[in-house]
Amino acid sequence: MTVSRVINGEQVVRPATKAKVDAAIIALNYAPSAAARSLAGGDELRIGLLYSNPSSSYLSEFLVGSLDQASRSGVDLVVEKWDEQTSVKAVVDHLLRGRINGVILPPPLCDLEEMVAALKAADIPAVAVATGRAPGDLAAVSIDDFQAAYEMTRHLITLGHSRIGFVKGNPNQTASGKRFEGYLAALSEANLPVLDELIAQGYFTYRSGLDAAEQILSLLDPPTAIFASNDDMAAATVAIAHRSGLDVPGDLTVCGFDDTSLATTIWPELTTIRQPISAMSRAAVEVLVRLLKGRRGAEMASEHLVLAHKLVRRQSDAAPRMRPRLGVR
Questions:
Q1: Does 32-143+278-296 carry CATH code 3.40.50.2300?
Q2: Contact indicator for 313, 286 with CB cutoff of 8 Å
């Protein structure tokens, strides 16, 4: 009770006692739990959305879902940007000062171990979204990235493609590895070789997609299809194909991943994997609110929701060297 009175600035504590408490706080590097203080006082929950995502189309859908569910759940949503120039400690200290009760971590922060550890040390619950793994001590919402990429690669093989290029996602995200593994598994199942020259490293940005597509399409024997790990890089691949005089999908099939708004704003519209980004962010808010109000069993703290994905066909895929009939999707 004495410590609580000192922290809350009450004047009933003797100066000598207050000095001892202040010294102990400094020695222990103690910071009060905003979540515990808010819940104890019956205040409205404040949750943070901490983002660092190069894809504006992905982020916009994520924000829409988060804001909508926060409103439905009666919680305040505080949106904060993080970049590598800001230390993780500074970010966590800022969250504590802002009395943030819990945090949503979209990619790539969902896989930043330093951030996850710092939030745990500060007793700030978090939910990781779109991570390729379910951390044992962190709640998560994701899709099955391996299965989704496997299904898209199988789809391309079924169309008749045997030389299928692949643009990897950013290696700092575990979902990237799962998508690449799904691509490899489908090739192996079909007894197709894995050709290193058909695989290029991307970073989930449009610019990296341009570089990767140029690398693959400059080959003497280029692929008849390219599967990019997100829609931004797939759109960049379509741009390079057009610049090279290739028809999509007549000369080159291009497929993406995510089904962001970009997939239907370019020509031709992208065949892609629909990752329910808005639904995932809504689910993350729901999980976090339950977690905070439960304060908090180990089972709930490691809850992992896997939402359904869908392969969506549009105009950017066709059998090799065959153009689709006009008006047919």
A1: yes
A2: no
User: 168-215: per-residue pLDDT in tens?
Assistant: 999 999 999 999 999 999 999 999 999 999 999 999 999 999 999 999
Q: Which two tokens stand for residue 145?
A: 């990235």
For the packed helices 174-189 and 145-159, what is the interaxial angle rounded to 10 degrees?
40
- Distances, alpha carbon 112 to alpha carbons 117, 203, 273, 299, in Å: 9, 16, 25, 22
Between residues 39 and 52, which one has the greater pLDDT?
A: 52
Mean pLDDT taken over the chain: 88
The arrangement of secondary structure in 145-274, i.e. its CATH architecture, is 3-Layer(aba) Sandwich (3.40)
Q: For residue 65, give Cα distances in angstroms to 44, 70, 210, 284, 316.
A: 20, 9, 29, 10, 28
Domain boundaries, the chain: 32-143+278-296, 145-274
pLDDT in tens, 71-122: 999 999 999 998 888 899 999 999 999 999 999 999 999 999 999 999 999 9
Write down the pLDDT at residue 324.
Answer: 45
145-274 and 32-143+278-296 share a CATH fold = yes
Give the CA-trace dihedral at 143, 145, 147, 149, to 10 degrees: 130
Task: Determine contact, residues 192/162, Cβ cutoff 8 Å.
Answer: yes
pLDDT on residue 35: 45
Q: What stretch of H or E contains 4?
A: helix 2-7
C-alpha dist (Å) from residue 236 to 182, 199, 203, 232, 294: 22, 15, 12, 6, 45
222 and 238 in contact (C-beta within 8 Å)? Answer: no
> CB–CB of 225/251 below 8 Å?
no
Half-sphere exposure of 164 (CA within 13 A, CB side): 33
Q: How far apart are CA 254 and CA 287, in angstroms?
A: 35
